[in-house]
Design a protein that fits this description.
- The longest helix has 18 residues.
- Strands 2-1-3 form a three-stranded parallel β-sheet.
- It has a single domain, classed as Phosphoglycerate mutase-like (Rossmann fold, 3-Layer(aba) Sandwich).
- With 192 residues, it is mainly alpha-helical.
């Protein structure tokens, strides 16, 4: 699940630094409404755990879902944090397009401090592996951020992490299933 509409979304500003995002830029009123509506659409699902990024907007989203569905308090997982956008921190979110365009190139430079898609994918997969060991045969709702979720989804559909923008956009408060067919993710062998 991507977090609901946040104050950063409305302000049109990049907030990817944990020093800022864990303390500020929580959900808007509309974001809270989106989260509750989305959770209510999934009352038939058997979520057993809610695990979220430690950013304020994801913590608030996860708590609303847990409250709405009568689940235990969410657990925080730093590996689900927002992708770090380096020098674009605090700037207009129009710069996402520049980063996403560059993501599609074979070689991604890090001169602007933007976290490489391969690194984002690796940390997301590590979280999944840890949770799989800890919560066997359970349905876990991950609450994270757009880039993290889209990049993580590439491993489930057999794409490279650089192709994350070729997947349908992950809307605010939208829940999408991540289901692995068989024992391993298609891209896992390439990552480890």
């Amino acid at each position: 699940m991507r977090h609901g509409q946040s104050e950063a979304n409305v302000a049109g500003v990049v907030v990817s630094d944990p020093a800022i995002g864990c303390q500020r830029f929580g959900l808007t009123e509309r974001g809270s409404e989106q989260v509750i509506a989305s959770a209510l659409q999934h009352t038939g699902k058997v979520f057993t755990q809610v695990i979220c990024s430690d950013f304020l907007r994801t913590q608030q989203t996860a708590q609303l879902v847990a409250d709405t569905l009568g689940l235990a308090s969410p657990q925080q997982e730093t590996g689900l944090r927002e992708r770090f956008f380096g020098c674009w921190e605090g700037m207009s979110d129009e710069h996402y397009q520049d980063v996403w365009q560059r993501d599609q190139m074979t070689e991604q430079t890090t001169k602007d401090g933007v976290e490489h898609t391969e690194i984002v994918l690796q940390r997301g997969v590590k979280v999944l592996e840890r949770l799989e060991r800890q919560y066997q045969n359970q349905v876990i709702l991950l609450v994270s951020h757009g880039d993290m979720l889209q990049i993580l989804r590439t491993a489930f559909v057999g794409k490279t992490p650089q192709q994350h923008r070729s997947l349908p956009h992950h809307e605010t408060a939208e829940i999408k299933s991540l289901v692995c067919q068989g024992d391993k993710l298609p891209m896992l062998g390439r990552l480890l």
